[in-house]
Amino acid sequence: MAKDKVVRDGPAEWLRPLDRQPLVIQVAETVRLAILGGRWGRGERLPNEADLADDFKVSRATLREAIGMLVFAGIVVRRHGSGTFVREEGREDGTSCSRTLAIGSDDHSAGHHPIDRR
Predict the structure, then answer these.
(1) What are phi and psi of 78, to 5 degrees?
(2) Of 39, 40, 70, 116, whose CB has the highest number of CB atoms within 10 Å?
(3) Are 95 and 75 in contact (CB under 8 A)?
């Protein structure tokens, strides 16, 4: 398995199409859990956006927003011209992205809607 690929049967299959959480939150959570699970270590570069978007079967815009959430949460850091890296000193509490970002209790009022990806 190539180091830059998440897993062969992975990311896209891990997303729950009828989940009430927005797709971008699901992607951010999946990447966060992969980091916590040791898929990428501290200081290690994540695959580029195009490859991750392809792995998750989402648009680059969705992937970019998900990575932005992880940056905001202090889990990863972007280095212009170099890529996105797991922070050397990151969060240890395992806080989920949806909890960290607290998008609100009513997703629909925030403009978020479940996606049926059948």
Answers:
(1) -95, 135
(2) 70
(3) no
The alpha carbon of residue 56 and the mean position of all alpha carbons in its chain are separated, in whole angstroms, by 9
Distances (CA, A) of 39 to 7, 17, 33, 45, 67: 9, 23, 9, 11, 16
The H-assigned helical ranges of 1-118 are 11-14, 23-36, 49-56, 60-72, 97-101
CB 36 within 8 A of CB 94: yes
CATH 1.10.10.10 fits 21-101, yes or no: yes
Other CB atoms closer than 10 Å to residue 53's CB: what's the count?
21
Query: What pLDDT, in 10s, does the model give residues 86-107?
Result: 998 745 555 555 554 544 334 4
CA-based torsion, 98, 104, 106, 107: positive or negative: negative
Q: Report yes or no: 8 and 1 within 8 Å, Cβ to Cβ.
A: yes
